[in-house]
């Protein structure tokens, strides 16, 4: 009788070089989810920033124009930032069919922490920039300070919005209404709707325009002072 033996010592049982489709799929899915959250956080932060920027610019312009104190100017700017921020978030929800009370409750829950973060940082930065709060509207310091303050506010609010989105809060509460809404009918068709990109472009153009006008005024100012001094000397 012949006995057949099988030698298994040379067999390699390792899985080196073999891919695991399931694990790879999970990694890609996790990465895709993270990218989606990051993109939504950027969009949410820009959306809040537009309302805050409009309110901040309006408040600081009014405060400096009528000679309010720094504290009063900051208070006015913060109040207007919340008004414009909430308004820009409420309009799309009203257009989507929500009642005013429901829309406001959703917006208050979604935007308050983000706007509050922006306002604290924005006004703190403006307050520490030398001359920014006391600069006139035709002054480059005002507009440069505004650019720096809004940029800092964006950087501060982005991680806040990202953390809220990961928990299903913040702008995640309004996302379904923006993307799953029915076509507006009746009077809701006339509710204005502004895209975030359009608002960002308009605000950027306004700030840059103010800066250009201020620089032009500064370039002409020395000649004006010299002319005034000459007239005074002659008189």
From TrEMBL:
Record-annotated DUF4396 domain positions: 39-170
Composition skew (Basic and acidic residues), residue ranges: 1-33
Domain of life: Bacteria
InterPro entries attached to this UniProt entry: DUF4396
Pfam hit, one: DUF4396
Transmembrane segments: 65-86, 98-120, 140-160, 198-217
Region ranges (Disordered): 1-34
Assigned keywords, A-Z: Membrane, Transmembrane, Transmembrane helix
Protein name (database record): DUF4396 domain-containing protein
Species of origin: Mycolicibacterium litorale
Organismal lineage: Bacteria, Bacillati, Actinomycetota, Actinomycetes, Mycobacteriales
């Amino acid at each position: 009788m012949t006995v057949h033996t099988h030698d298994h010592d040379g067999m390699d049982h390792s899985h080196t070089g073999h891919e695991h489709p399931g694990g790879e799929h999970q990694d890609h899915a996790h990465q895709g989810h993270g990218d989606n959250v990051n993109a939504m956080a950027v969009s949410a932060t820009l959306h809040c920033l537009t309302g805050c920027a409009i309110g901040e610019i309006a408040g600081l312009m009014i405060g400096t124009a009528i000679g309010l104190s720094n504290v009063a100017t900051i208070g006015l700017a913060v109040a207007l930032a919340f008004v414009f921020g909430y308004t820009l978030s409420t309009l799309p929800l009203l257009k989507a069919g929500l009642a005013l009370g429901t829309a406001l409750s959703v917006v208050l829950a979604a935007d308050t922490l983000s706007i509050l973060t922006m306002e604290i940082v924005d006004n703190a930065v403006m307050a520490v920039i030398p001359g920014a709060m006391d600069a006139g509207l035709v002054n480059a310091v005002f507009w440069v300070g505004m650019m720096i303050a809004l940029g800092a506010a964006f950087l501060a609010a982005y991680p806040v919005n990202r953390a809220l989105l990961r928990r299903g809060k913040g702008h995640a509460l309004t996302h379904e209404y923006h993307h799953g809404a029915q076509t507006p009918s009746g009077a809701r068709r006339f509710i204005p709707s502004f895209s975030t990109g359009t608002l960002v472009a308009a605000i950027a153009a306004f700030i840059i325009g103010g800066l250009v006008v201020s620089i032009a005024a500064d370039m002409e100012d020395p000649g004006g002072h010299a002319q005034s001094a000459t007239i005074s000397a002659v008189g």
